[in-house]
Protein backbone atom coordinates (compact mmCIF):
# COMPACT_ATOMS: atom_id res chain seq x y z
CA UNK A 1 0.00 0.00 0.00
CA UNK A 2 1.29 3.45 -0.90
CA UNK A 3 1.86 5.94 1.87
CA UNK A 4 1.11 9.60 1.21
CA UNK A 5 4.20 11.80 1.06
CA UNK A 6 5.18 15.25 -0.13
CA UNK A 7 6.78 14.13 -3.37
CA UNK A 8 6.76 11.39 -5.96
CA UNK A 9 10.39 10.59 -5.14
CA UNK A 10 9.52 10.03 -1.48
CA UNK A 11 6.63 7.70 -2.36
CA UNK A 12 8.86 5.65 -4.67
CA UNK A 13 11.67 5.50 -2.12
CA UNK A 14 9.39 4.32 0.68
CA UNK A 15 7.67 1.60 -1.34
CA UNK A 16 8.51 -2.08 -0.93
CA UNK A 17 6.73 -5.06 -2.45
CA UNK A 18 5.00 -7.30 0.06
CA UNK A 19 4.10 -10.44 -1.87
CA UNK A 20 3.72 -13.45 0.44
CA UNK A 21 4.72 -16.87 -0.82
CA UNK A 22 1.22 -18.19 -0.10
CA UNK A 23 -1.53 -15.99 -1.52
CA UNK A 24 -5.03 -16.47 -2.94
CA UNK A 25 -7.03 -13.71 -4.62
CA UNK A 26 -10.41 -15.11 -3.55
CA UNK A 27 -9.49 -15.23 0.12
CA UNK A 28 -7.94 -11.77 -0.06
CA UNK A 29 -10.80 -9.94 -1.76
CA UNK A 30 -13.70 -11.71 -0.06
CA UNK A 31 -13.15 -14.07 2.85
CA UNK A 32 -10.99 -11.68 4.88
CA UNK A 33 -13.88 -9.17 4.96
CA UNK A 34 -16.63 -11.76 5.57
CA UNK A 35 -16.57 -11.52 9.35
CA UNK A 36 -20.33 -11.52 9.98
CA UNK A 37 -20.49 -7.72 10.19
CA UNK A 38 -22.53 -7.32 7.01
CA UNK A 39 -19.90 -5.15 5.33
CA UNK A 40 -21.17 -3.94 1.95
CA UNK A 41 -19.41 -5.41 -1.10
CA UNK A 42 -21.59 -4.70 -4.13
CA UNK A 43 -24.48 -2.56 -5.30
CA UNK A 44 -26.10 -4.04 -8.38
CA UNK A 45 -28.40 -1.80 -10.40
CA UNK A 46 -30.43 -3.24 -13.27
CA UNK A 47 -31.47 -1.31 -16.36
CA UNK A 48 -34.90 -0.65 -14.82
CA UNK A 49 -33.29 0.99 -11.78
CA UNK A 50 -33.95 -1.89 -9.38
CA UNK A 51 -31.10 -2.31 -6.89
CA UNK A 52 -29.76 -5.21 -4.88
CA UNK A 53 -27.03 -4.99 -2.25
CA UNK A 54 -24.60 -7.78 -1.44
CA UNK A 55 -22.38 -8.09 1.60
CA UNK A 56 -19.02 -9.81 1.73
CA UNK A 57 -20.67 -12.45 3.91
CA UNK A 58 -23.11 -13.21 1.08
CA UNK A 59 -20.40 -13.24 -1.58
CA UNK A 60 -18.37 -15.67 0.53
CA UNK A 61 -21.31 -18.00 1.10
CA UNK A 62 -22.41 -18.06 -2.53
CA UNK A 63 -18.87 -18.41 -3.92
CA UNK A 64 -18.37 -21.35 -1.56
CA UNK A 65 -21.58 -22.91 -2.81
CA UNK A 66 -20.50 -22.43 -6.42
CA UNK A 67 -17.08 -23.94 -5.70
CA UNK A 68 -18.78 -26.98 -4.18
CA UNK A 69 -21.08 -27.31 -7.19
CA UNK A 70 -18.15 -27.12 -9.60
CA UNK A 71 -16.30 -29.75 -7.60
CA UNK A 72 -19.37 -31.99 -7.82
CA UNK A 73 -18.97 -31.96 -11.61
CA UNK A 74 -15.29 -32.76 -11.53
CA UNK A 75 -13.75 -29.30 -11.74
CA UNK A 76 -10.41 -29.30 -9.98
CA UNK A 77 -7.37 -27.17 -9.31
CA UNK A 78 -5.88 -25.80 -12.53
CA UNK A 79 -9.05 -26.31 -14.59
CA UNK A 80 -10.29 -23.31 -16.57
CA UNK A 81 -13.65 -21.77 -15.67
CA UNK A 82 -15.04 -19.43 -18.34
CA UNK A 83 -17.18 -16.52 -17.16
CA UNK A 84 -19.28 -15.16 -20.01
CA UNK A 85 -21.31 -12.53 -18.19
CA UNK A 86 -21.70 -8.74 -17.90
CA UNK A 87 -21.18 -6.76 -14.70
CA UNK A 88 -23.37 -8.73 -12.29
CA UNK A 89 -23.20 -10.37 -8.84
CA UNK A 90 -22.87 -13.81 -10.42
CA UNK A 91 -19.79 -12.63 -12.32
CA UNK A 92 -18.02 -11.67 -9.11
CA UNK A 93 -19.18 -14.83 -7.34
CA UNK A 94 -17.80 -17.00 -10.16
CA UNK A 95 -14.44 -15.25 -10.04
CA UNK A 96 -14.07 -15.63 -6.28
CA UNK A 97 -15.08 -19.28 -6.47
CA UNK A 98 -12.58 -20.03 -9.22
CA UNK A 99 -9.71 -18.44 -7.30
CA UNK A 100 -10.59 -20.21 -4.04
CA UNK A 101 -10.67 -23.55 -5.90
CA UNK A 102 -7.21 -22.97 -7.34
CA UNK A 103 -8.83 -23.03 -10.78
CA UNK A 104 -8.16 -20.48 -13.54
CA UNK A 105 -10.83 -17.90 -14.38
CA UNK A 106 -11.35 -17.05 -18.06
CA UNK A 107 -13.45 -13.87 -18.33
CA UNK A 108 -15.20 -13.35 -21.68
CA UNK A 109 -16.81 -10.18 -23.03
CA UNK A 110 -20.57 -10.52 -23.56
CA UNK A 111 -20.53 -8.79 -26.94
CA UNK A 112 -18.26 -11.43 -28.40
CA UNK A 113 -19.83 -13.32 -31.27
CA UNK A 114 -19.93 -17.06 -31.79
CA UNK A 115 -16.53 -17.35 -33.49
CA UNK A 116 -14.76 -15.28 -30.83
CA UNK A 117 -16.29 -17.34 -28.04
CA UNK A 118 -15.53 -20.63 -29.73
CA UNK A 119 -11.87 -19.69 -30.19
CA UNK A 120 -11.38 -18.66 -26.55
CA UNK A 121 -13.25 -21.61 -25.05
CA UNK A 122 -11.38 -24.07 -27.25
CA UNK A 123 -8.00 -22.39 -26.84
CA UNK A 124 -8.29 -22.25 -23.04
CA UNK A 125 -9.70 -25.76 -22.80
CA UNK A 126 -12.39 -24.47 -20.46
CA UNK A 127 -14.01 -27.22 -18.38
CA UNK A 128 -16.84 -25.09 -17.02
CA UNK A 129 -18.79 -22.07 -18.21
CA UNK A 130 -21.18 -19.74 -16.44
CA UNK A 131 -23.30 -17.53 -18.68
CA UNK A 132 -26.80 -16.13 -19.22
CA UNK A 133 -29.65 -16.97 -21.60
CA UNK A 134 -28.11 -14.99 -24.45
CA UNK A 135 -24.82 -16.80 -23.96
CA UNK A 136 -26.63 -20.14 -24.08
CA UNK A 137 -28.20 -19.17 -27.40
CA UNK A 138 -24.78 -18.40 -28.86
CA UNK A 139 -23.46 -21.73 -27.60
CA UNK A 140 -26.07 -23.68 -29.57
CA UNK A 141 -24.00 -23.36 -32.72
CA UNK A 142 -20.66 -24.37 -31.21
CA UNK A 143 -21.40 -26.74 -28.31
CA UNK A 144 -20.34 -29.85 -30.24
CA UNK A 145 -16.94 -28.30 -31.01
CA UNK A 146 -16.05 -27.94 -27.31
CA UNK A 147 -15.29 -31.44 -25.99
CA UNK A 148 -13.43 -30.12 -22.92
CA UNK A 149 -16.50 -28.30 -21.64
CA UNK A 150 -17.95 -30.50 -18.87
CA UNK A 151 -20.59 -28.27 -17.32
CA UNK A 152 -22.50 -25.08 -18.20
CA UNK A 153 -24.42 -22.88 -15.77
CA UNK A 154 -27.07 -20.33 -16.77
CA UNK A 155 -27.85 -17.50 -14.36
CA UNK A 156 -31.24 -16.71 -15.95
CA UNK A 157 -34.25 -18.57 -14.72
CA UNK A 158 -35.80 -18.25 -18.18
CA UNK A 159 -32.95 -19.74 -20.19
CA UNK A 160 -35.58 -21.44 -22.34
CA UNK A 161 -34.89 -23.96 -25.07
CA UNK A 162 -31.35 -22.74 -25.67
CA UNK A 163 -30.31 -23.43 -22.09
CA UNK A 164 -31.82 -26.89 -22.21
CA UNK A 165 -30.31 -27.75 -25.57
CA UNK A 166 -26.76 -26.96 -24.48
CA UNK A 167 -27.35 -28.80 -21.21
CA UNK A 168 -27.08 -25.76 -18.96
CA UNK A 169 -27.72 -26.08 -15.23
CA UNK A 170 -29.68 -23.36 -13.42
CA UNK A 171 -27.03 -21.39 -11.53
CA UNK A 172 -29.00 -20.31 -8.47
CA UNK A 173 -30.79 -23.62 -7.98
CA UNK A 174 -27.46 -25.43 -8.25
CA UNK A 175 -25.98 -23.22 -5.53
CA UNK A 176 -28.96 -23.86 -3.25
CA UNK A 177 -28.12 -27.59 -3.24
CA UNK A 178 -24.62 -27.02 -1.87
CA UNK A 179 -23.04 -26.23 1.47
CA UNK A 180 -21.84 -22.69 2.04
CA UNK A 181 -18.67 -24.02 3.69
CA UNK A 182 -15.58 -24.53 1.55
CA UNK A 183 -11.90 -24.78 2.39
CA UNK A 184 -9.95 -22.65 -0.08
CA UNK A 185 -7.07 -24.35 -1.86
CA UNK A 186 -3.66 -23.25 -0.59
CA UNK A 187 -2.24 -21.45 -3.61
CA UNK A 188 1.13 -19.81 -4.06
CA UNK A 189 1.39 -16.23 -5.26
CA UNK A 190 2.92 -17.56 -8.50
CA UNK A 191 0.18 -20.11 -9.18
CA UNK A 192 -2.04 -19.45 -12.24
CA UNK A 193 -5.25 -17.54 -11.50
CA UNK A 194 -6.71 -15.96 -14.64
CA UNK A 195 -6.40 -15.97 -18.42
CA UNK A 196 -7.33 -12.65 -20.03
CA UNK A 197 -7.34 -12.61 -23.80
CA UNK A 198 -5.78 -9.63 -25.51
CA UNK A 199 -8.18 -7.38 -27.35
CA UNK A 200 -6.73 -8.24 -30.73
CA UNK A 201 -5.58 -4.72 -31.63
CA UNK A 202 -2.61 -6.10 -33.58
CA UNK A 203 -3.75 -9.58 -34.62
CA UNK A 204 -5.18 -12.84 -33.31
CA UNK A 205 -6.04 -12.68 -29.57
CA UNK A 206 -3.61 -14.39 -27.20
CA UNK A 207 -4.44 -15.62 -23.71
CA UNK A 208 -2.32 -13.77 -21.14
CA UNK A 209 -1.95 -16.11 -18.15
CA UNK A 210 -1.61 -14.29 -14.85
CA UNK A 211 -0.72 -15.53 -11.37
CA UNK A 212 -2.53 -14.70 -8.14
CA UNK A 213 0.16 -12.08 -7.46
CA UNK A 214 -1.18 -9.99 -10.37
CA UNK A 215 -3.65 -8.32 -8.03
CA UNK A 216 -0.91 -7.22 -5.63
CA UNK A 217 1.08 -6.02 -8.65
CA UNK A 218 -1.80 -3.74 -9.66
CA UNK A 219 -2.14 -2.01 -6.30
CA UNK A 220 0.58 0.69 -6.59
CA UNK A 221 -0.78 1.88 -9.95
CA UNK A 222 -4.40 1.79 -8.78
CA UNK A 223 -3.58 3.62 -5.56
CA UNK A 224 -1.50 6.22 -7.39
CA UNK A 225 -4.03 6.91 -10.15
CA UNK A 226 -6.79 7.26 -7.54
CA UNK A 227 -4.99 9.72 -5.26
CA UNK A 228 -3.77 7.23 -2.64
CA UNK A 229 -6.76 4.92 -2.80
CA UNK A 230 -8.51 3.87 -0.58
CA UNK A 231 -8.34 7.30 1.10
CA UNK A 232 -11.87 8.79 1.21
CA UNK A 233 -13.20 5.83 -0.77
CA UNK A 234 -16.92 5.09 -0.43
CA UNK A 235 -17.89 3.56 -3.77
CA UNK A 236 -16.03 2.60 -6.98
CA UNK A 237 -17.53 2.23 -10.45
CA UNK A 238 -16.46 1.76 -14.05
CA UNK A 239 -18.34 1.26 -17.30
CA UNK A 240 -15.49 -1.04 -18.40
CA UNK A 241 -16.58 -4.64 -18.57
CA UNK A 242 -15.17 -6.95 -15.90
CA UNK A 243 -14.04 -9.30 -18.68
CA UNK A 244 -11.20 -6.89 -19.43
CA UNK A 245 -8.17 -6.28 -17.28
CA UNK A 246 -9.27 -2.66 -16.78
CA UNK A 247 -12.64 -3.58 -15.26
CA UNK A 248 -11.46 -6.62 -13.33
CA UNK A 249 -8.03 -5.66 -12.02
CA UNK A 250 -8.23 -1.87 -12.05
CA UNK A 251 -11.60 -1.73 -10.29
CA UNK A 252 -13.40 -4.82 -8.93
CA UNK A 253 -10.59 -6.79 -7.34
CA UNK A 254 -8.44 -3.88 -6.04
CA UNK A 255 -11.53 -2.29 -4.48
CA UNK A 256 -12.42 -5.52 -2.71
CA UNK A 257 -8.80 -5.99 -1.62
CA UNK A 258 -9.29 -2.75 0.31
CA UNK A 259 -12.85 -3.59 1.39
CA UNK A 260 -14.36 -0.81 -0.75
CA UNK A 261 -17.82 -1.47 -2.28
CA UNK A 262 -18.25 -1.58 -6.04
CA UNK A 263 -21.22 -0.42 -8.12
CA UNK A 264 -22.23 -2.80 -10.93
CA UNK A 265 -24.33 -1.38 -13.74
CA UNK A 266 -24.29 -2.52 -17.33
CA UNK A 267 -25.24 -0.03 -20.04
CA UNK A 268 -26.66 -1.70 -23.13
CA UNK A 269 -25.36 1.35 -24.97
CA UNK A 270 -23.07 3.77 -23.16
CA UNK A 271 -24.49 7.25 -22.75
CA UNK A 272 -22.47 10.09 -21.23
CA UNK A 273 -25.37 11.87 -19.52
CA UNK A 274 -26.63 8.61 -18.03
CA UNK A 275 -23.15 7.82 -16.70
CA UNK A 276 -22.95 11.18 -14.93
CA UNK A 277 -26.46 10.69 -13.56
CA UNK A 278 -25.50 7.26 -12.23
CA UNK A 279 -22.39 8.56 -10.48
CA UNK A 280 -24.32 11.46 -8.98
CA UNK A 281 -27.20 9.28 -7.79
CA UNK A 282 -25.00 6.75 -6.03
CA UNK A 283 -22.35 9.12 -4.73
CA UNK A 284 -19.52 7.38 -6.60
CA UNK A 285 -16.22 8.57 -5.16
CA UNK A 286 -13.78 6.83 -7.49
CA UNK A 287 -14.15 5.78 -11.12
CA UNK A 288 -12.15 4.41 -14.01
CA UNK A 289 -13.42 5.90 -17.26
CA UNK A 290 -11.80 4.76 -20.53
CA UNK A 291 -10.90 7.61 -22.90
CA UNK A 292 -13.71 6.68 -25.30
CA UNK A 293 -16.23 7.05 -22.46
CA UNK A 294 -14.74 10.40 -21.46
CA UNK A 295 -14.94 11.66 -25.03
CA UNK A 296 -18.61 10.67 -25.16
CA UNK A 297 -19.22 12.45 -21.85
CA UNK A 298 -17.33 15.60 -22.85
CA UNK A 299 -20.42 17.38 -24.14
CA UNK A 300 -22.34 16.76 -20.91
CA UNK A 301 -22.57 18.68 -17.65
CA UNK A 302 -22.93 17.44 -14.08
CA UNK A 303 -26.65 16.95 -13.30
CA UNK A 304 -28.06 20.19 -11.89
CA UNK A 305 -30.22 18.42 -9.31
CA UNK A 306 -27.44 16.18 -8.01
CA UNK A 307 -25.92 18.53 -5.46
CA UNK A 308 -22.21 18.44 -4.52
CA UNK A 309 -20.05 15.97 -6.36
CA UNK A 310 -18.79 13.03 -4.31
CA UNK A 311 -16.02 12.28 -6.82
CA UNK A 312 -12.54 12.14 -5.37
CA UNK A 313 -10.66 10.65 -8.32
CA UNK A 314 -11.07 9.73 -11.98
CA UNK A 315 -8.52 7.49 -13.68
CA UNK A 316 -8.27 6.78 -17.38
CA UNK A 317 -6.05 4.71 -19.63
CA UNK A 318 -5.94 3.06 -23.03
CA UNK A 319 -5.66 6.09 -25.30
CA UNK A 320 -4.08 9.51 -24.81
CA UNK A 321 -6.29 12.12 -23.10
CA UNK A 322 -4.92 15.51 -24.09
CA UNK A 323 -5.50 18.97 -22.67
CA UNK A 324 -9.15 19.26 -23.73
CA UNK A 325 -10.31 16.28 -21.65
CA UNK A 326 -8.15 17.26 -18.69
CA UNK A 327 -9.74 20.71 -18.72
CA UNK A 328 -13.27 19.28 -19.06
CA UNK A 329 -12.66 16.96 -16.11
CA UNK A 330 -11.66 19.82 -13.87
CA UNK A 331 -14.67 21.91 -14.87
CA UNK A 332 -17.39 19.25 -14.88
CA UNK A 333 -16.13 16.44 -12.66
CA UNK A 334 -14.26 18.65 -10.22
CA UNK A 335 -11.07 16.56 -10.33
CA UNK A 336 -7.92 16.25 -12.40
CA UNK A 337 -8.20 13.06 -14.44
CA UNK A 338 -5.18 10.87 -13.81
CA UNK A 339 -3.91 9.07 -16.88
CA UNK A 340 -2.30 5.65 -16.51
CA UNK A 341 -0.72 3.14 -18.84
CA UNK A 342 -0.42 -0.60 -19.16
CA UNK A 343 -1.56 -3.54 -21.20
CA UNK A 344 -3.11 -6.96 -20.66
CA UNK A 345 0.28 -8.61 -20.16
CA UNK A 346 1.66 -6.02 -17.74
CA UNK A 347 -0.82 -3.44 -16.52
CA UNK A 348 -0.83 -0.28 -14.37
CA UNK A 349 2.91 0.32 -14.68
CA UNK A 350 2.82 4.08 -15.36
CA UNK A 351 0.48 6.64 -13.84
CA UNK A 352 -0.21 10.26 -13.11
CA UNK A 353 -1.22 11.49 -9.66
CA UNK A 354 -2.34 15.08 -9.22
CA UNK A 355 -1.59 14.90 -5.48
CA UNK A 356 2.09 14.44 -6.32
CA UNK A 357 2.61 16.36 -9.56
CA UNK A 358 0.72 18.34 -12.16
CA UNK A 359 -0.18 16.42 -15.29
CA UNK A 360 2.35 16.75 -18.07
CA UNK A 361 0.16 17.15 -21.15
CA UNK A 362 1.24 14.67 -23.76
CA UNK A 363 2.77 12.32 -21.19
CA UNK A 364 1.12 9.26 -19.65
CA UNK A 365 2.78 9.78 -16.28
CA UNK A 366 5.70 8.31 -14.38
CA UNK A 367 6.53 4.75 -13.42
CA UNK A 368 4.28 3.55 -10.61
CA UNK A 369 6.22 2.64 -7.44
CA UNK A 370 7.73 -0.81 -7.59
CA UNK A 371 7.91 -0.96 -11.40
CA UNK A 372 11.06 -0.37 -13.43
CA UNK A 373 9.89 1.15 -16.71
CA UNK A 374 12.45 2.23 -19.29
CA UNK A 375 12.77 3.14 -22.95
CA UNK A 376 14.82 0.41 -24.60
CA UNK A 377 16.00 -0.62 -28.03
CA UNK A 378 15.11 -3.86 -29.78
CA UNK A 379 17.84 -5.70 -27.85
CA UNK A 380 16.57 -4.54 -24.47
CA UNK A 381 19.27 -1.95 -23.85
CA UNK A 382 18.13 1.34 -22.30
CA UNK A 383 18.33 4.41 -24.51
CA UNK A 384 19.05 7.98 -23.45
CA UNK A 385 16.35 10.33 -22.22
CA UNK A 386 14.71 12.14 -25.11
CA UNK A 387 15.32 9.26 -27.53
CA UNK A 388 12.47 7.18 -28.92
CA UNK A 389 12.34 3.47 -28.22
CA UNK A 390 10.23 0.61 -26.92
CA UNK A 391 8.42 1.11 -23.63
CA UNK A 392 9.83 -1.78 -21.61
CA UNK A 393 9.23 -3.23 -18.13
CA UNK A 394 12.00 -4.98 -16.22
CA UNK A 395 11.33 -8.49 -14.94
CA UNK A 396 10.61 -9.89 -12.44
CA UNK A 397 7.55 -7.83 -11.60
CA UNK A 398 4.46 -9.01 -9.66
CA UNK A 399 2.07 -7.51 -12.24
CA UNK A 400 3.76 -9.22 -15.18
CA UNK A 401 2.07 -12.18 -16.85
CA UNK A 402 3.36 -15.73 -16.61
CA UNK A 403 3.19 -16.06 -20.38
CA UNK A 404 0.79 -16.58 -23.24
CA UNK A 405 -1.39 -19.63 -22.79
CA UNK A 406 -0.03 -22.52 -24.88
CA UNK A 407 2.12 -20.12 -26.89
CA UNK A 408 5.76 -20.18 -25.70
CA UNK A 409 7.00 -18.74 -29.00
CA UNK A 410 4.90 -15.57 -28.63
CA UNK A 411 5.94 -15.34 -24.97
CA UNK A 412 9.62 -15.42 -25.91
CA UNK A 413 9.07 -12.77 -28.59
CA UNK A 414 7.56 -10.47 -25.97
CA UNK A 415 10.93 -10.05 -24.26
CA UNK A 416 14.28 -8.53 -25.14
CA UNK A 417 16.77 -9.49 -22.48
CA UNK A 418 15.09 -8.90 -19.13
CA UNK A 419 12.66 -6.31 -20.50
CA UNK A 420 9.10 -7.05 -21.51
CA UNK A 421 8.46 -5.05 -24.67
CA UNK A 422 5.00 -3.50 -24.65
CA UNK A 423 4.98 -2.98 -28.41
CA UNK A 424 4.51 0.74 -27.84
CA UNK A 425 6.95 3.49 -28.75
CA UNK A 426 7.69 6.13 -26.14
CA UNK A 427 10.11 8.80 -24.94
CA UNK A 428 11.19 9.53 -21.36
CA UNK A 429 12.28 12.97 -20.22
CA UNK A 430 14.85 13.70 -17.47
CA UNK A 431 12.09 14.00 -14.84
CA UNK A 432 10.84 10.51 -15.60
CA UNK A 433 7.70 11.46 -17.52
CA UNK A 434 6.95 9.02 -20.32
CA UNK A 435 5.36 10.23 -23.52
CA UNK A 436 3.42 7.69 -25.53
CA UNK A 437 4.26 8.06 -29.23
CA UNK A 438 2.20 5.18 -30.54
CA UNK A 439 2.24 1.47 -31.21
CA UNK A 440 5.08 0.26 -33.39
CA UNK A 441 2.65 -0.07 -36.28
CA UNK A 442 0.81 3.19 -35.52
CA UNK A 443 3.75 5.60 -35.81
CA UNK A 444 3.53 7.55 -39.07
CA UNK A 445 6.68 8.15 -41.12
CA UNK A 446 6.19 11.20 -43.30
CA UNK A 447 8.91 13.13 -45.17
CA UNK A 448 11.49 11.90 -42.68
CA UNK A 449 9.41 12.78 -39.61
CA UNK A 450 8.09 10.21 -37.13
CA UNK A 451 4.60 11.28 -36.09
CA UNK A 452 2.46 9.84 -33.33
CA UNK A 453 -1.32 9.90 -33.85
CA UNK A 454 -2.24 10.86 -30.28
CA UNK A 455 -1.36 14.58 -30.25
CA UNK A 456 -3.12 15.13 -33.59
CA UNK A 457 -6.26 13.38 -32.35
CA UNK A 458 -6.20 15.45 -29.16
CA UNK A 459 -5.85 18.62 -31.18
CA UNK A 460 -8.74 17.70 -33.49
CA UNK A 461 -11.19 16.99 -30.66
CA UNK A 462 -10.34 20.41 -29.29
CA UNK A 463 -12.15 21.91 -32.26
CA UNK A 464 -15.82 22.67 -31.48
CA UNK A 465 -17.05 20.77 -34.56
CA UNK A 466 -15.38 17.48 -33.64
CA UNK A 467 -16.70 14.75 -31.34
CA UNK A 468 -14.12 12.02 -32.01
CA UNK A 469 -11.09 11.58 -34.25
CA UNK A 470 -8.59 8.92 -35.25
CA UNK A 471 -5.40 9.39 -37.23
CA UNK A 472 -3.40 6.92 -39.35
CA UNK A 473 -0.69 6.99 -41.96
CA UNK A 474 -1.53 6.18 -45.57
CA UNK A 475 1.05 5.28 -48.27
CA UNK A 476 2.31 8.19 -50.34
CA UNK A 477 4.86 8.03 -53.15
CA UNK A 478 6.49 11.34 -52.25
CA UNK A 479 6.38 11.39 -48.44
CA UNK A 480 6.32 7.61 -47.68
CA UNK A 481 3.13 8.23 -45.70
CA UNK A 482 0.71 11.10 -45.20
CA UNK A 483 -1.39 11.85 -42.14
CA UNK A 484 -5.06 10.98 -42.69
CA UNK A 485 -7.73 11.84 -40.12
CA UNK A 486 -11.08 10.11 -39.69
CA UNK A 487 -13.45 12.51 -37.94
CA UNK A 488 -16.83 12.06 -36.26
CA UNK A 489 -18.59 15.42 -36.10
CA UNK A 490 -20.85 16.79 -33.42
CA UNK A 491 -24.56 16.62 -34.13
CA UNK A 492 -25.74 19.19 -36.65
CA UNK A 493 -22.29 19.97 -38.05
CA UNK A 494 -21.85 19.62 -41.81
CA UNK A 495 -18.62 18.08 -43.04
CA UNK A 496 -17.72 20.11 -46.12
CA UNK A 497 -14.55 21.36 -47.78
CA UNK A 498 -14.57 24.54 -45.72
CA UNK A 499 -14.49 22.47 -42.51
CA UNK A 500 -11.68 20.33 -43.90
CA UNK A 501 -9.57 23.43 -44.41
CA UNK A 502 -10.50 24.78 -40.99
CA UNK A 503 -9.48 21.56 -39.25
CA UNK A 504 -6.21 21.40 -41.17
CA UNK A 505 -5.43 24.96 -40.15
CA UNK A 506 -6.42 24.17 -36.57
CA UNK A 507 -3.81 21.40 -36.38
CA UNK A 508 -1.14 23.22 -38.35
CA UNK A 509 -1.25 26.30 -36.12
CA UNK A 510 -1.43 24.36 -32.83
CA UNK A 511 1.00 21.52 -33.50
CA UNK A 512 3.34 21.61 -36.49
CA UNK A 513 3.22 22.04 -40.24
CA UNK A 514 4.39 18.47 -40.86
CA UNK A 515 1.68 17.01 -38.57
CA UNK A 516 -1.51 18.39 -40.04
CA UNK A 517 -3.77 15.83 -41.77
CA UNK A 518 -3.41 16.15 -45.53
CA UNK A 519 -6.68 14.23 -45.93
CA UNK A 520 -9.75 14.30 -43.69
CA UNK A 521 -12.58 11.82 -43.99
CA UNK A 522 -15.86 12.42 -42.19
CA UNK A 523 -17.42 9.23 -40.78
CA UNK A 524 -20.35 8.45 -38.50
CA UNK A 525 -18.36 6.17 -36.18
CA UNK A 526 -14.89 4.76 -35.59
CA UNK A 527 -13.94 1.07 -35.46
CA UNK A 528 -12.93 0.13 -31.92
CA UNK A 529 -12.07 -2.97 -29.98
CA UNK A 530 -14.38 -4.09 -27.19
CA UNK A 531 -12.15 -2.15 -24.78
CA UNK A 532 -12.63 1.08 -26.74
CA UNK A 533 -9.25 1.22 -28.46
CA UNK A 534 -9.28 2.43 -32.05
CA UNK A 535 -8.57 -0.34 -34.57
CA UNK A 536 -6.28 1.61 -36.85
CA UNK A 537 -5.61 -1.28 -39.20
CA UNK A 538 -9.28 -1.13 -40.27
CA UNK A 539 -8.90 2.57 -41.01
CA UNK A 540 -5.79 1.89 -43.07
CA UNK A 541 -7.61 -0.93 -44.89
CA UNK A 542 -10.27 1.42 -46.25
CA UNK A 543 -12.82 2.01 -43.48
CA UNK A 544 -15.73 2.37 -43.88
CA UNK A 545 -16.23 -0.51 -46.29
TrEMBL record:
<dbReference type="InterPro" id="IPR025110">
    <property type="entry name" value="AMP-bd_C"/>
</dbReference>
<feature type="domain" description="AMP-binding enzyme C-terminal">
    <location>
        <begin position="456"/>
        <end position="533"/>
    </location>
</feature>
<comment type="similarity">
    <text>Belongs to the ATP-dependent AMP-binding enzyme family.</text>
</comment>
<dbReference type="InterPro" id="IPR020845">
    <property type="entry name" value="AMP-binding_CS"/>
</dbReference>
<keyword id="KW-0067">ATP-binding</keyword>
<dbReference type="Pfam" id="PF00501">
    <property type="entry name" value="AMP-binding"/>
</dbReference>
<dbReference type="GO" id="GO:0006637">
    <property type="term" value="P:acyl-CoA metabolic process"/>
</dbReference>
<dbReference type="Pfam" id="PF13193">
    <property type="entry name" value="AMP-binding_C"/>
</dbReference>
<dbReference type="GO" id="GO:0004321">
    <property type="term" value="F:fatty-acyl-CoA synthase activity"/>
</dbReference>
<dbReference type="InterPro" id="IPR000873">
    <property type="entry name" value="AMP-dep_synth/lig_dom"/>
</dbReference>
<dbReference type="InterPro" id="IPR051087">
    <property type="entry name" value="Mitochondrial_ACSM"/>
</dbReference>
<protein>
    <submittedName>
        <fullName>Acetyl-coenzyme A synthetase</fullName>
        <ecNumber>6.2.1.1</ecNumber>
    </submittedName>
</protein>
<dbReference type="InterPro" id="IPR042099">
    <property type="entry name" value="ANL_N_sf"/>
</dbReference>
<dbReference type="GO" id="GO:0003987">
    <property type="term" value="F:acetate-CoA ligase activity"/>
</dbReference>
<dbReference type="GO" id="GO:0005524">
    <property type="term" value="F:ATP binding"/>
</dbReference>
<keyword id="KW-0547">Nucleotide-binding</keyword>
<dbReference type="GO" id="GO:0015645">
    <property type="term" value="F:fatty acid ligase activity"/>
</dbReference>
<dbReference type="InterPro" id="IPR045851">
    <property type="entry name" value="AMP-bd_C_sf"/>
</dbReference>
<dbReference type="InterPro" id="IPR049515">
    <property type="entry name" value="MACS_put"/>
</dbReference>
<dbReference type="GO" id="GO:0006633">
    <property type="term" value="P:fatty acid biosynthetic process"/>
</dbReference>
<feature type="domain" description="AMP-dependent synthetase/ligase">
    <location>
        <begin position="37"/>
        <end position="405"/>
    </location>
</feature>
<keyword id="KW-0436">Ligase</keyword>
Amino acid sequence: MLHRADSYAQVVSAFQWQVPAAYNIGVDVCDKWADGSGRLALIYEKSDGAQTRYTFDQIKAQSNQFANSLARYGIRRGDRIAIYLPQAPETAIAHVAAYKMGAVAVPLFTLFGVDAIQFRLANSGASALVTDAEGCRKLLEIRDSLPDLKVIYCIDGDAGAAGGTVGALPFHQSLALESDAFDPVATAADDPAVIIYTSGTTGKPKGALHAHRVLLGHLPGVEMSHEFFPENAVLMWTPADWAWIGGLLDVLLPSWHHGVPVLARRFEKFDGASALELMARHGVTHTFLPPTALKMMRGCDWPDHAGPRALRSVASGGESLGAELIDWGRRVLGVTINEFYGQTECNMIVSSCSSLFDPCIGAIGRAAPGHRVAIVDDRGAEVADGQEGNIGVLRPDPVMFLGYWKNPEATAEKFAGDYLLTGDIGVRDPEGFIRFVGRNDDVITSAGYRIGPGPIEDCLIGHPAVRMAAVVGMPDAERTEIVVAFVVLNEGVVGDEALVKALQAHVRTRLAAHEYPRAIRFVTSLPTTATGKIIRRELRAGYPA
